[in-house]
Amino acid sequence: MAAPRSPTRIAPPLSSSGRLSLSMVAALFVLGISGSRAEVVTIFAAASTTNALNEVAESYAASDSSGQKVRPVFAATSTLAMQISKGAPAHLFLAANPAWMDYLVERHAIRPDSRRDLLGNRLVLIAPAGSRLQIAIEPGLPLVEALAGGRLAIGDPAHVPAGIYAKAALERLGVWHAVAPRTAQAANVRAALALVDRGEAAAGIVYQSDVAVGRRTRVVAVFPASSHPPITYQVALVAGSNLPEAKRFYHFLLGPEAGAIFRRHGFLTLTPGS
Questions:
Q1: Which of 68, 181, 222, 260 has minimal CB crowding within 10 Å?
Q2: What angle do CA 119, 120, 123 make, to 5 degrees?
């Protein structure tokens, strides 16, 4: 397999501490903090991959003659990376930002030789389905005016990958400083999506792959790829994870069956043969 491309560093981690989401707490309670159960493969994954990765895990379990189970744990990439660095019981990590993989490489918490570019994505501006908001993505776009006193939901740009990309795009377009006071900054991209879906924000910036999840949202416009760094998801085995089943699922993620599922959910696939 070809060596992975060097990742684009978007922003270094700004903090060495993080909080577990409620779903992660529940998952770790089941697993037991002291160690992982050999019969279950645990993958910590970016919240934006929730629907796609759940389907991939189901497909893998159905195709594996041993009935191998995979347990995904979803949260913001930053939160998951910090928990892995503290010894949380994961076998694999699927990150939405290469900078957080760098963070774990520096702490010897993942196996660098297993690090691969897996997925790509697009950044989109969304609004509630009943909204009349219309705007073209171009330099100096009148986004504050388009919000009409409402908020723009984004992931927290201090550490959430989707928020980092959103801030980068708005800076490139020359409107970040005007828009920043009108942002509602969420703990992860799915939380930002939920704010728009519930009508609590006038608009939001999320990944294209999130759009199908929002039942009451619509895409207003797609951000040009040139307006932000490449959106790259990487996967790697966690250091010390020698579970053969984890390696099998890792290779399944890189393969054509998983690739087809990810594409159906709006992702781009970056692995040759997927």
A1: 181
A2: 145
3-class state of residue 54 by DSSP:
helix
Beta strand 92-95 pairing with 40-46: parallel
- Tens digit of pLDDT for each residue in 104-137? 999 999 999 999 999 999 999 999 999 999 999 9
Q: What is the dihedral of CA 172, 210, 22, 44, to 10 degrees?
A: -80
Q: Can you give the length of the chain in residues?
A: 274
* Token code pair at residue 90: 């994961």
Q: Give the helix/strand (H/E) hosting 154.
A: strand 152-155
The 10s digit of each residue's pLDDT in 67-83 is 778 999 999 999 999 99
**Dihedral (CA of 7, 77, 198, 264) sign:** positive
DSSP 188: S
Which has the closest alpha carbon to 155: 204, 200, 203? 204
Q: Span 131-145, mean pLDDT?
A: 96
Kind and range of the H or E run holding 27: helix 22-31
